[in-house]
């Protein structure tokens, strides 16, 4: 599990979904993209959309600091490979953890369906991010806004 923070809250995502963790760098901004999408990262020669976890959780951008990183995530949506970047704060720890270590919190979050069970570790409560549900949420909610923003850029360039 890879852990990170948003404000004073702790989160973790399965290492199976993590391709790489890179420094938070200047991104190409899409002016008409949804607010959670802070820009595109040139990753492997192509554009990779990056969402800011602190904007999602706290309605503020991640702090500019050495511990702020972009987590490159890969999975599938509709049986197709899918990649996004997740900018987060205090991306500093990898720990052994299994799905069974996280307990169902008994609360459904319709706004952020990717927030899953919780576990206690070293006097902290850590909430798990379900990568599959994050990809589904992104595909259903955010990607449509990015596609619209990209179309606007193409219109501007002609």
Based on the model shown, name its key terms:
single chain; 158 residues; alpha+beta; 9-stranded mixed β-sheet; 2 helices; 42% strand
What does this structure look like?
The chain is α+β, with helices and mostly antiparallel strands. The protein is 21% helix and 42% strand. It has two helices and nine strands. Strands 1, 2, 3, 4, 5, 6, 7, 8 and 9 form a nine-stranded mixed β-sheet that branches. The longest helix has 27 residues, at 131-157.
Give the integer mean of the pLDDT values: 84
**H/E element string?**
EEEEEHEEEEH
The unreliable regions are none
Number of helices: 2
CA radius of gyration:
16 Å
Shape designation: globular
Instruction: Give the total of beta strands.
Output: 9
Describe the protein's topology.
Elements: E1 2-6, E2 9-13, E3 18-23, E4 37-43, E5 46-52, H1 53-58, E6 69-77, E7 80-94, E8 115-121, E9 124-129, H2 131-157
Parallel strand pairs: 2-9, 5-7
Antiparallel strand pairs: 1-2, 1-7, 3-6, 4-5, 6-7, 8-9
Would you kindly provide a brief summary of this structure?
With 158 residues, the chain is α+β, with helices and mostly antiparallel strands. It has two helices and nine strands.
